[in-house]
Amino acid sequence: MKKLALTAVLTFATVISAGHLSAQTALKDVAKVRDGIIFVGMAYEISERCDSINARLFRGLNYLQSLRSHARDLGYSEAEIDAYINDDAEKDRLEGIARRQLADLGVIRGDEATYCSVGRAQMDANTRVGWLLR
């Protein structure tokens, strides 16, 4: 009887766990991960368009690894994380958000001075984007 009760509890726990995982929020909706990727994209764009500002490469890579670790801590599998990272449509969506946020900060596409100005302002304000630049 105890064996049957233990089996029933384990089966119930497995069903509950499986139900929890299937109802898990889509990784694209996890603000810390999504916003972190956007911040890295913004910093990268600034560093590519402004010759006097560079990306902090190792800091950026470590930050991206911390986002991956956060996703794992939330229960996402490596396969789910990789699928999110490799999703071309999601890359395009996040790139669009990053560019809109840069425009909101004063960047004018094709105008290097505006990238430099926004980048320096982000560094001075010690924002996440500024933290990724030097």
UniProtKB/TrEMBL annotation:
InterPro entries: Uncharacterised_14.7kDa (IPR020349). It comes from Yoonia maricola. It holds the Pfam family DUF5333. Keywords: Signal. Residues 1-18 form the signal peptide. This is NADH dehydrogenase subunit E.
